[in-house]
Design a protein that fits this description.
The chain has about 70 residues and is mostly helical. The chain has helices at about 10-20, 25-35, 45-60, and strands spanning about 5, 10. It is built from 3 helices and 2 strands; from the N terminus they run ββααα.
Length: about 70
């Protein structure tokens, strides 16, 4: 658990949860929903990266699962 936005007390887990459960896919939606990057803006880059990485991970097929030999 890591705080991404200190101003609004938003964690990386909260961002990931919104993407997976509510289909958030843009920074604009994330700002409206969680208030991330709306005050001092220092978290904008990191929040955007977490958003992107989460979107990529849910769109890719799970190829890291163990396969039979």
């Amino acid at each position: 658990l890591m705080y991404v936005c200190l101003c609004k007390a938003v964690t990386d887990k909260a961002i990931k949860q919104k993407v997976v459960e509510e289909g958030i896919s843009t920074m604009r939606e994330l700002k409206a929903c969680l208030g991330v990057a709306t005050q001092c803006g220092k978290c904008s880059c990191q929040a955007s990266q977490i958003l992107h990485n989460t979107l990529v991970s849910i769109s890719e097929p799970q190829t890291s699962l163990a396969r039979p030999a």
